[in-house]
Write the structure tokens for this entry.
Amino acid sequence: MSNVRVRMAPSPTGNLHLGTAYTTLFNYLFAKKNQGKFILRIEDTDKERSKIEFEENILNGLKWLGLIWDEGPFRQSERLENYQKEAQKLVAEGKAYHCFCTKEDLDKEREDRQELNLPLVYSGKCRHLSTEDIKTNLDMGKPAAIRFKMPEDRGVISFEDLIHGKISFDSLLLGDMVILRSNQMPLYNFSVVVDDVDMQITHVLRGDDHLSNTPKQIVLFEALGAKVPEFAHWPSILNPDRIGKLSKRNNATSIDDYKKLGFLSEAIVNYLALLGWTFPEEKEIMSLTEMEKEFDLKKMRLSPAAFNMEKFEWINGEYIRKLSEEELLKRLQV
Ligand code: GLU
């Protein structure tokens, strides 16, 4: 058993989407290939949009695809105290501070900075409040968010992405981010890092729409005194016309839709894998068990692939033809 631990962290704000299944698949394969653990975490801190029906749909869909997790599901909504505790700890250590700025203050500040052509990050106004002022404000019950204090000398934040290679960001353009809102709810970047530390995640593997979050998460790992995990980001699946990320605009996007259209789970897994990863020996058909042995993160595509229904149907046909009559009959009934 290796110490590799990866996680998939869907937000239950919709039914299981092809894109979520795609990211889950590669996390699953990486864990299997490295004899590690695959952890499932439900990121349900957005109370308005998170629904239990969506969570059930996601869990059932992943099971149907055969992407079974080793630990979890853990729910962020059940872990709120952890985020609050860690945020307070950072304040106590001088790595974060209370911010009493109201929405109006922040809007005004933003406008002013826009006029002056300054980066649109928080000015750091509350960074410099005296201990007495902070205490007075808190005693008065003024709503206080907690902001991370970006170290002034942090300079360039670089990391070696396992797919893209070296990526660098200027810390000055990130500013002091809010980690806990005044209603005590954590912000995405903070809850993710607190959980990744607790769950001892060694590799964060996800779509490149999260690339810009990575430097923010790296500084938070550092502040919490934790080892920064390895990162890999891959391109999202594109619409068939290559315009934009795969969307409902002209395709079915949920796993349920494809199940209803008659796609076998094996074919969905095979097609998704083929979209992101070049199979060995230019193969196009590979079972999940075979993939678990052959998977190589380094062979993931750097340029995005477009969804192609004809190819998908061809792969489905290959799997249907492999079924015995008895098995086919059974599948036709569900
Ligand atoms: N909840 C995030 C999402 O659905 C997960 C991001 C991550 O993997 O860090 O995109």
About this structure: Residues 18-33 form the longest helix (16 residues). The mean pLDDT is 96.
